[in-house]
Amino acid sequence: QLIRSRNAKDADKAVDDEQKQRKQEEEKTHMQEDLVRQKSIAEAKRLADEEQKRRVQEEEKFHMQEQLTRRNSIGKADKMMAEEQARRVSANEKLDTQEELVRKQNVANVKKAGEQERARRMSIEVATQG
Questions:
Q1: What is the pLDDT at residue 19?
Q2: Phi-psi category of 73—alpha, beta or left, where left has phi over 0 and alpha has psi -120 to 50?
Q3: Model's pTM, two decimal places?
């Protein structure tokens, strides 16, 4: 009876240890997923900040060019403004495409992390059931 009692205690301890380990692994995975999300958000913010700075510089450059053009001729100014508008449209489309790519990459990173977590949990369940 003493041996049975020890075996039951050992089995209970093994189950408790396994549950603790599983919980620690889940917490670690959640922390990793949060880190991936934070990095993706930080990268998107950095890209947006860079683009905003570039736009401000382009705007300032455009205004200086516009002033110089006014001194030369109205016809030249009209032409330059049309070209600048076309460039801005192109730059905005490029930015929209870049932002969409960043969003898609963020979604893919989160999905991948989720899939890895599900696969890990399933392997733990299979291992504990087997």
A1: 94
A2: beta
A3: 0.34
CA distance 23 to 17: 10
pLDDT at 55: 92
Instruction: Choose between 2 and 54: higher pLDDT.
Output: 54
Are the C-beta atoms of residues 33 and 113 closer than 8 Å to each other? yes
